[in-house]
Amino acid sequence: MQVRIGEIDKTWFRCDRFIHLGDGWYFTTRENTQEGPFDNHQDAERELDYYIRTHNRIDSMVDDDFQEPWSSAH
Description:
Layout: E1 18-21, E2 24-28, E3 34-38, H1 41-65
Antiparallel strand pairs: 1-2, 2-3
C-alpha cells in the first residue's frame, strides 16, 4: 500500500454497515444501496460477505474483458 512521504502507514476508516430498523437488519453498500431486511445481524453479515465476494468476482470478470488491446495478457 502506498502512503505519502513521511507517513508510516495508511489508516483505513470503516463505518458500521449494519442498521437495525423495525422490520429487520440491513447493510449498506459502497454503491449507496440498503440491502435487507434480514432476520438478524448474523444473517446480514453473511449476506454482506456474499455480496462483496460476488461483486469482486464480477469486477474481476469485467476487468478481464476490457483489457487494452496491446496488453500481454491476450
